[in-house]
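User: For a benchmark we're assembling, each entry needs the component sequences followed by a predicted structure for the full assembly. Here are entry 17's components. Please fill in the structure.
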Amino acid sequence: MKAEGATTDGSLQPLLKVESLVKLYVKRNLAGVREEVRALDGVSFAIDPGATLAVVGESGSGKSTLASCVACLENPKSGSICFDGRNIVAISERHRREVRPQIQLIFQDPANSMNPRWSALEILIEPLVLQRKMNREEMKRRAYRLLDRVGLPSEIANRPPTELSGGQRQRLAIARALALEPKLLILDEALSAIDCSIQAQVANLLMDLQTSLKMTYLFITHDLSMAAHLADEIAVMSHGRIVEHAPTEKVLRQPESETTRQLLKAMPKMIRPALPEMQQ
Amino acid sequence: MIGFLLRRLRHALFLLIGVSVLAFLFAALAPGNYFDEMRLNPQIAPETIAALRAQYGIDRPLPMRYASWVNSLLHGNMGFSFAYNSAVAPILMVRARNTLLLTATSTLLAWAIALPLGIWSAEHFGKLPDRLLSWGTAALLVIPDLGIALGLLVLAVRSGWFPSGGMASVDFETLSVFRQLRDMAWHMVLPVSALVLCALPLLVRHVRAAVADVLNAPFLLAAIGHGIPRRTLLYRFALPAAANPLISLFGFSIGALLSSSLMVEVVMSWPGLGPLLLESILSRDLYVVVGAILFSTIFLVFGNLTSDLLLYLADPRIRTESSAR
Amino acid sequence: MTARRSLTKWFVALCVMHGIVVCAGFFAPYDPGGQDRRNPYMPPMRLHLQDARGQLHLRPFVYSLKLRDGSFDQYQEDQTTLHPLQFFLSGAGYRLLGFVPCRWHLFGVENSRIYLLGSDGYGRDQFSRLLFGGQVSLLAGLLGAGLTLVIGAGIGSVAGYFGGWRDDILMRLSELFLALPWLYLLFALRAFLPLAVNPLQAFFLIIAVIAAVGWARPARLVRGVVLSAKERDFVRAARGFGATGGYLWRRHILPETSSVLWTQAAILVPQYVLAEMTLSFLGLGVPEPVPSWGNLLSSLQQYSVLVSYWWMYLPALAMVPFFVGYLGIASSLQEREQPYKVDRMGLGSLT
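Assistant: Structure for entry 17:
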């Protein structure tokens, strides 16, 4: 279910506007020499409310760093991230804590993103506990509603995530992310660790949720075919930079950068869009 | 490789300096010093004591004392022992040599026994001989080190087979070189046995575990599939692969052995750093204490340096990572 | 699940043994300080069921020992009087658990003294001293280990969580402490504190010293766990929900360290008991007349005792069943953590 055109609800302001984002890592390799790695080298893009932007790239291109920065888990060296008109890089930690609930991150590996020692219920209510806005009973009710919404049976509430299947775990992670009713959902390779057969189910769930809850998605992946299926626009990243950013159809049919062409070539022949130079 | 060595040496130096500062601080801040004991002695005039204190600079501020101590250290002078009334360095050298003799012999012997025993045990993993050995090492492991040392001493004394202490018999000077060596070896049997018995159970268990891990590794199963003979398998394939944890174990075992040797030396009256440290502590002989601690640290640091170097030579991964820039 | 069962087994065994030591007053026939100068260095008495005339008795008994004529330390059994073993008799007063006054003892003999493990130079019953000594040594080990783990966990958490200069300084400090052979460090620390203190002060002093020596290794282990836990996605997710550092540490990171801490505890307690024994043996620990397993052995430093009075060595073995128990717990804990790995004897937690 892709949105038609760029703006869906008439507002002119993009929900997320990233400008010239730079993020450096200083690593010390085993010989003791300092190395500076430019994970993000001047990244800029914008997402309109209700739309889905897919950021595609290979490992090491900086996609996960981008996710962390937008989710306020890491601080960029320079640049700005404007969420709903506010630059969240420049504000204090306390203010940022207020903004954080509106931007939620779903991680790649659901086995890792939830504490294996906790039960599903404890995991679900954790965000509510931290926000301290409702009492225990309300939290539990909200948790069961969330389980229902993602299609999980309520019996699993008392089980730890290790007893669930991969697909169920990711649904639980999605339910947890929805607890605070975010506006922006960042999916960091969220479908990559699930079996192919289940991927479609979870993807469809995500699409349904997007329409019913009016959320905006930033979808990070290395899989161009998945991005093609789910996103309105695709941005291709390479070495910390965005090398191409255009609506999905255009990226697939008229790729401009070499990176995009390489990614397209890597797609299985059957789903590869028919490009002039790809015709053998 | 030179780069690696230099870096490890620099690290070792830092450790030695740090330890010397710590030791000096503790010693200097200790309540009571040698002269308090002297003061209790009515035969020594207070002026004498004051003069001695000035001579040894006891009343100068700490950083100055440390600085002058380091300065003389670099000139080979390790301070003055109040109790022995002589320079510290010669006393320490003799004692350190004795400790080194004991510790080095015990380390070599312990590893010489533990390696083959551990490998053999790993080969027969889970079967009866291995289980018997496990029980044996467990039995040894649960007896406290003090118990082992004292037990050997009681046995020796009641049986009369071995001397009950010391490093040399009374008539040592009069013996020929050969007999001197034999006498020293005879005196060494007990302390060395104690140390080896203290160290052996853990060593054997770790060797067994490390080799057993390797023996189960896919690459070794592939080698067996290729029909490589058993001896080659063990010593040219398995052992080098197990070298990494074993060398780390070697570094660790030196520290443990040095500690145990402190206790064994005191119990069996072996004239090493141990009894010296104890005496000088009880008589508050500052420079001897610091010197003894420094020497023991030097041994440990160099032992670790050796094991680092061995690791560097044995594990190609460390070499490539180190040279990658 | 067998790992869990064996863990319970060991734990129960340890509790029983500790329980016996805690109720030392009940299990020991005499007060540990009770001297009997007429019977110095008496060897252990043997329990008999059959007397000299060949008659069997239901109740085991002992003969009192009298000095052999012409010797000053050779004893022989005086077979004229039998002293049957009595159970649950009333004897010297003591305080159960430190505050309940009590006079019941598990066993003893009337009109005489029974020396199950012999007596020392002052005629004090070694068996009673062994049990009471255990209180001191074991408590020192447990408290010391507890203190070390608190210090180590604290320092390791700070170093691992905050990183940066705090991590650098703390880890350098821990390296310094690890660079010294621990017994040397222990001696040095102990001896640089006042030597002549009363038993209670000495007790707490050596606990502090032992704990100060051993914090480095647990700290490094905890730091490792904290470093990796900090980067786990569920911790990052919690931060995304607005969690503060304190919450993260308390609810997510600290529980991850629990297994390391328990394993370290099982390994450290016996080591610390041994440290206390060594210190007390050399006169740097708990002083007379308070018994501890270490100072019970200090008479062995005299040649004469070493040669003639072999039973004075026995307290050295008192630690053995406890060692077995703690070691058993340590290996079941390790099995629980890594059930599929080859039985490793604590390589990960000792190095």
